[in-house]
Design goal:
Blueprint lengths: L14 E6 L9 H12 L6 E7 L6 H6 L2 E7 L9 E5 H9 L11 H10 L6 E7 L12 H20 L3
Parallel strand pairs: 1-2, 1-3, 3-5
Antiparallel strand pairs: 4-5
């Protein structure tokens, strides 16, 4: 019997930066707008995959489980002024998402996707949520002025995490 040859995966330390949101509901789409900005700023960042996750679906469980590190950018109920940006890492992210404090109109919750990855033993060891307090969740394809002004700060937060997490 001949031995099975398996492909060698050389680049296993990839970080997934996942932007979530519905761009038809003003501030709800801010995660996607941040991803678009990051791609324009640094389209070829080594070992980083930028993904527009839209309004979530179970299909995102695969890419999340395949990543060594995960950064999610999305709206979050921070009980703060619109446009406030906060970063939750590791257990702090798990607690925040697990307590239902993440605002969402998504088909599947981020908590569900993280639970799937955890149950499969594939939850990225390094993970963070860059949360942005929304102000306007109404029809429209551009964020409110306060949330639009937060996009560069959210990009800086993502870039800071990527720099700190370099292998």
């Amino acid at each position: 019997m001949q031995a099975q040859a398996y492909p060698v995966i050389e680049d296993t330390a990839r970080t997934l930066v996942l932007g979530l949101g519905n761009t038809l509901l003003q501030d709800e789409g801010v995660g996607v707008h941040v991803i678009e900005t990051l791609v324009r700023l640094a389209p070829d960042t080594p070992r980083v995959d930028y993904m527009d996750g839209g309004t979530l679906s179970f299909t995102l469980a695969g890419p999340i489980g395949e990543a060594a590190a995960l950064i999610v950018v999305d709206t979050a109920q921070l009980d703060a002024a619109p446009g406030t940006v906060r970063v939750f890492e590791g257990a702090d992210m798990d607690d925040f998402v697990g307590n239902g404090r993440k605002t969402s109109v998504h088909e599947v919750s981020l908590r569900d996707l993280l639970a799937i990855s955890s149950l499969e033993g594939r939850l990225p060891a390094r993970r963070a949520l860059v949360g942005i307090q929304p102000g306007v969740m109404d029809w429209g394809n551009t964020p409110s002025p306060a949330v639009a002004a937060a996009i560069p700060r959210a990009c800086q937060a993502v870039q800071g995490l990527l720099e700190r997490w370099k292998p």
